[in-house]
Design a protein that fits this description.
heterodimer, A: about 110 residues, mainly beta, 5-stranded antiparallel sheet, B: mainly beta, 4-stranded antiparallel sheet, 1 helix, 11 strands, globular
Chain lengths: ~110, ~120
């Protein structure tokens, strides 16, 4: 089967750093993506990792370890506008489809 | 801006009826995906088109669901004999295709909220 696991909720304060973990079990693996979704909005792309290591894009970084079937999204200098749901997604089945995780709801407090 | 658009934004129908949901992808994007999302859950993959062909339809829940993309651009998701359990937000996404981060970035439309009474 295919499954992704993420914490359901994370809470942090403005200016802090938060890490959202994702573990996956899929029949194939071609890369790990992260998406942000605000309530009532569409998912928006944050990052994609195909190889092991850390990818940095501004305040957001994403990490992948293929041997551990594990990745994380790191958000630095948290802002109130970062309050949203965050989804990891694995490109699976010989790169033909994407499997999304259940999502992590991040609440940033003042 | 020329993002992904979906129509209608909301659709209310009665159990047993037929519905069509439309997706206009970003011009030039060869890959097109349909997902459905229930409240509090992640998007659930339905079908993936590469050009005009359905490269992977393994996510379609049953034969009441069908999707087409006849000219490699606009796509229509068709649901026959709708059931209350079909109620969800149906999301469409397009991607340039290819390798790397740019090829794998999916641009999502605003979704169609389907309610089956």
């Amino acid at each position: 089967g295919q499954s992704l696991e993420q914490p359901s909720e994370v809470t942090a304060v403005e200016g802090a750093i938060v890490q959202i973990n994702c573990t996956y079990q899929t029949s194939g693996f071609y890369g790990l993506s992260w998406y942000q979704q605000h309530d009532g909005g569409a998912p928006t792309f944050l990052s994609y990792n195909a190889l092991d290591g850390l990818e940095e894009t501004g305040r957001f970084s994403s990490f992948l370890s293929r041997s551990d079937s594990y990745g994380y999204l790191l958000l630095q200098e948290l802002q109130m506008k970062d309050s949203a749901s965050y989804f990891c997604a694995v490109r699976d089945n010989y790169g033909q489809n994407f499997v999304f995780g259940p999502g992590t709801r991040l609440s940033v407090l003042p | 801006g020329a993002g992904v658009s979906q129509t209608p934004s909301n659709k209310v129908t009665e159990k047993g009826k037929y519905v069509e949901l439309r997706c206009d992808p970003i011009s030039g994007h060869t890959a097109l995906y349909w997902y459905r999302q229930s409240l509090g859950q992640g998007p659930e993959f339905l079908i993936y088109f590469q050009g005009t062909g359905a490269a992977d339809d393994s996510g379609l829940p049953n034969d009441r669901f069908f999707a087409v993309r006849p000219e490699g651009s606009v796509s229509t998701l068709k649901i026959q004999r709708t059931e209350r359990g079909d109620s969800a937000v149906y999301l469409c996404a397009s991607s340039p295709g290819g390798a790397g981060s740019a090829g794998n970035e999916q641009f999502f439309g605003p979704g169609t909220r389907l309610t089956v009474l």
